[in-house]
Amino acid sequence: MGEGDALVSMLPFDRHVEQAVLAMKKGAHLLKCGRRGKPKFCPFRLSTDEKYLIWYSGQEERQLRLSSVYKIIAGQKTVNFQRQYQPHREQQSISLIYYANGERSVDLICKDKTEADAWFIGLRAAISRSHSCSSVSALRNRNRGAQSCLSSPAGFIRRKHNLGLMEEKNQFSQIAFIPGNRICHTCKTLRIVL
What CDD domains does this protein's entry cite (predicted)? Predict the structure, then answer.
């Protein structure tokens, strides 16, 4: 067993979490409680890259970037839920709290407690993954040369730019992605290896 294998085996891999995330990617019709009007059934799903919660309100697609969510709450504790409180659906309810010009929430009611538990577990995992740079799959690929976004060449250049350390004139005329595990600088070309 290699060093990377030992690291992966130490991770708290939970089959229930992965099943919940997979079910969320397939989607479900959930009751969405908004700021105005009655709750509406909307199709919800998790994006394939696990970065967005996507739903349709009428004909319009809506997205919530999970990295903007800072809290997930079980039950009916938000202002939207209190406005239309349904005590018999307390165990079926989930709220995602996020910032967008102030504190906002997406308030959902699932069909039963089992579905609510699955969505709560899956959303918690997806939110946690969106807040950390590397997911379980990135750690599994560690022996194959996968890099975290902090140590990647693009991350390095972005940090230099944000700190004002980049020259005005761009030194790199071309960026090429080449399979492998090292970075090559040649002829004003930056090759980023994945």
Answer: PH_PLC_plant-like (cd13365)
